[in-house]
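User: I'm designing a mutation panel for von Willebrand factor A domain-containing protein 5A and want to avoid disrupting the core. Could you give me a predicted structure to guide residue selection? Please restate the sequence first so the numbering is unambiguous.

Assistant: Good idea. Sequence first, for numbering, then the predicted structure tokens:
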Amino acid sequence: MDEDSAVYTFEALVDGKKIVAELQDKMKAHTDYEVAISQGCQAYLLEEDKSSRDVFCCNVGNLQPGSKVALTLRYVQELPLEADGALRYVLPAILNPRYHLSGLTEDSCLDLKTPIVPLENLPYTLTMVATISSQHGINRVQSNCALSPMEYLEGDKTSAQVSLAEGHKFDRDMELLIYYSAVHSPSVAVEMAMPERKPGHKFDRDMELLIYYSAVHSPSVAVEMAMPERKPDSLMGDPAVMVSFYPDIPDTETSMICGEFIFLMDRSGSMDTPMSKQDRSQLRIEAAKETLILLLKSLPLDCYFNIYGFGSSFEAFFPESVKYTQQTMEEAVERVQLLKADLGGTEILTPLQKIFRGPSIPGHPLQLFVFTDGEVTDTFSVIKEVKFNSKKHRCFSFGIGEGASTSLIKNIARVSGGTSEFITGKDRMQYKALRTLKRSLQSVMEDISLSWDLPPDLTANMLSPEQTVIFRGQRLIFYAQLTGIVPPEEATGEVCLRCTLQGKSIEQKVTFSLQPKYDSNFTIHRLAAKSLIQTKDMGFRETSARERKDVLNISIESGVMSSFTAFIAINKELNQPVQGPLVHREIPRPVLSARPARASLCYQAVLQSSSHGQKIKCRSRLESMHHMKKTHSSTYETNLQSNCKGNGIVQLIFLQNANGSWDLNEGLAKVLGMNLEDIKAAHPTKYVMDSSVWATVLAVVWLHTNGMDQESEWDLLERKARAWIHTHAGSSTHKIVKTANAFLKSSVDPAIFTL
């Protein structure tokens, strides 16, 4: 389940009788469960895995022969907002094995040995019906899985229902993208209910999605009534507040600021599996390599960088971070091509410690990019290490493929002030990675604080962790508790967000009604409790005694599960104990084939040539790359055009130099579809003598003419090129662009070259 899910109800329906579970201290729940089982009682136990908050284990014991049991979970979570305004909900169906850290023998429910069968022989399927309710009209629902046509349940289109097509097996996570008529007012929370199983199906899951709105592109506040019969001044006994801000950060030119960029790439064996279970899906390691090379090409000149690969051990390209130059970029690109998923397990902690203990480079803040499928057992030690070093770096994390640990990926970004991305199915890793790099280079809102203007005798106590930065396009959500006397209906309050952007103070205020609204699910209270638990709960081994006590109290009071609590349900009304020999049923899981994926011929072919048309002979061992010999060739690789037909953008990217320029050579001519001699003849030497200026202007004009649908992936490259042109062509730029337009038969506005 997603890391941000707040599980608050667990029920079992046994032969028509409902048994509601109680949330207890985990140690007591385990003892009660074992006693109940030994006495022949029916008992049910639900708990988080000891090593990761996104994995749950359910124990079901002592069933009568022929009995049917339906299990119901209820949880609430914030849904991420996509760039196109959709809300994204994912029902995880892939649970990959997690790798144990060396020397640790922490028990994990993932260690359970279950039979493995081919996907086509799996004896069960997933049937799911999703009911979506919202305050605004639902426009459409899209999915990565086959769905039935959407049915509206209300005339105003505020309620709709979709279901999975029959026969869905557990070969991919199920994703819903929900689009609304009011695109700029999407929701921030979803309530999930999974009712009892219908007869006649092998694995049924009905879902009710109750969408709770807050206008994302304008600030909003929701106040929720306290839980009845709870004492005031307690988490559930006072009204809870959810504050949503969407700060308006201008889309300014990305600043090519200096920095130290370290890329930490997973090279464990699990990276040698496909990105998704779709036919001809690319291998994870290949997708990560391609994206890493794009990032290398997009770095600002004069920054510092290094690349680490990790598995059971780790390797660094350079002993320490090196300055970004043409030479170091080319060497890094060459080395990336040789990387394989051949380093064993997934031990990310040791390389992280090595990176954090390295010397800081004055004037170059550390930006850490982590690429991993997240299949590591003990995530809490990693999160704690990143958090401990959060003052000296920001971490941007990428979960590769389905089944990546949301607990690991989300938290290492969250505790360090970075962002996280998940790349699954048909997602373009290039787009998400370049978007993240752009964020790391942009100005951010800092010095964030909230202030409240409330009536006398009423105070707001923050429940959310401190937010350090806000990136452009990022939504900001706070939770607070209102303590004191709530005034009459007409009373209002005001909350103000203060922060700084490039040294300038910014304020954003919102006035709201103080009259709380009743919600039988207490959604805001439970989201607030989950947010509070996440800041304190670091698992059994990493949580201090004081924090453990706080987590236990918050969890028990709110009913939201934690590492130290578990749900237990015991059927105490059973007339007689279940007797006779116990039969252990083995429920198989599918083997998701790591079949050979289609090689990325386009990238492989392009990478065989450097920006100077050099042909590279790569040795098999990584350590030989530092002393690699290069032989010059006057011609571009002959198979380049055939392998990369129609993908000139990729070719062009790999021809660009580190400083942003292009050389005028045969490789560029092939991308432009022109004869090299014709390009040279059209060179406007009366405006500029440097052929690289002419080549670079042609490349930029070609990109704007032929590659606008992938602009987000070459945006940083193009900005580097424009800066280089401005330096080397100056006032002649406008005339050179007009000449390039005429030569390429394009109509690109010369104004785009203005910095």
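For picking mutation sites, this is relevant: The first helix runs from residue 26 to 38. Confidence is low (pLDDT under 50) at residues 183-202, 593-646.
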